[in-house]
Amino acid sequence: MHLDALFTNGRFTTLDAERPAAHTLGVFGGRVVGLDEEVAGCTADLVHDLGGAPVVPGFNDAHQHLSMRGRRLLQLDLHARTAPTLRALYAAVRERAARLGPDEWIFGAGYDQNKIGAHPTAEALDEAAQGRPVWLEHVSCHMGVANTAAFARAGFTGRCGVPDLDGGHVERDADGRAVGLLQETAQHLVTRAFRPSPADSIVAAIAAGNDQGVSEGITSLTEPGIAAAEHVGHGPADLHAFHRAVREGVLSIRTTVMPYMTVLHDMGAVGDGATWFGLDLGLRSGFGDDRLKIGATKIATDGSLIGRSAHMCCGYHDEPDNVGFLQFDEDWLRHTIGEAHRCGWQIAAHAIGDAAIDIVLDAFEAAQAAHPRWDARHRIEHFAVASDQQVRRLVANGVVPVPQGRFVSEIGDGMITALGPQRAEHCYRMRSLLEAGAVLPGSSDAPVAHGSPLLGIHDMINRRTAAGAPLAPAEAVTPEQALYAYTVGSAYAEHAEDRKGRLSRGMLADFAVLSDDLLSVDPGRIDTLTVGATVIGGRVVHDAGALG
Predict the structure, then answer these.
(1) How confident is the model at residue 271 (pLDDT cuts 50, 70, 90)?
(2) Chain-centre distance of CA 460, in angstroms?
């Protein structure tokens, strides 16, 4: 038999119980056709010698904002590693301003007030930008800071007359004037001045995110939120931009996109007395192919821990009178989740605080009671602060939790400050979820945290913050469990475990070649491993010299 490709002399970890390891893998039509003796004697158009390198199924990030990650790669980087102080942030804005025209926007992202001491202010940004409009997105994406010129572009001259919005917060001075910080839904008061984004810029962002992702061994991901520029996404034509990116050959990562729930709508009668809620043409979860498909519909119910806007059952450790807030009315959430469920959508609800988690679980249970569906496989994105009872309830309802391992090191110190040591023991639980019977995916929430799966796996196993403090160490998982999460678990979260996550006959030929075996190296140095090559559908999409 003549194949498209043969990959020889490798150390394949297949995650297939019947054949857990192999040395040779054959590909035809983008799928695995056999291993070792099953492809003995076969010829192929391409033969790649892996030189004895370890190979794992391709990483699948169940929650990565690919296009946003790419957008940030093209903007001013304000992470603490590049702008470690508030003074350094202002200096970076000043330097960028010097290279721009007098009316051009300055876009930056990645700052964290927990690491630099405070949020930037409009007045200080005015001085740094010299009259240019500025929008700086917080690392969490749940807030941002605008300067006076940016407020003016949005219709609020002198930062006056800025309204309050349900589900958001406008930071003000003693006179009621906006000082720059906008949280949650209030961000749209300024971002509407530059969104929706042009399709060309979205495609460029997707391309940049894809190039970074394949260099990290990512072969599949889920983009959690498109098409709602006022919430998550670049604009109403986001899906068109993803289609363009596939057609133009700049998006090779298999991508599942989540339309934001606010773009779903009541479409009225569809015959036989039935009504429909969703997208035009009856599009819903599952439409598409293995390159690009529509997944769950996403809704963010609350905010973030490090921004103190996640909806909690009781006050934050350092702000005892603050319990955060919901971004949407509870009745609206229950009704809209119910309608989406009735019409066949998988639902992915962002819920970080324990109070928000209860509200989401209530809505899922009510929807299922009214319209029973087998294996709906709804999701709770983050599931960040959860009690034992909530873990059991999630599993009983067949809900998929989607926590992020990399948060432990990158924002873990801020989360401990927000929660206090006792409640932090229930923060971003993983082992408890597995022991209760949940299927655990792997995800990063990039660009909120670094998108490298190897870094995420490192933190899932080691559970240490940037300062070296343990964060819920009892929730650590084994290397095998972490790898399973980033492959099979993430495939399960998108209803794709029948074709992704394992390397066996008939499965998609997606895999990553590593510098060492992550299942046998010292767990404390998994973050030093690198990706030598990435293969999607048997096609090499990244090669750092690993392929002969």
Answers:
(1) confident
(2) 16
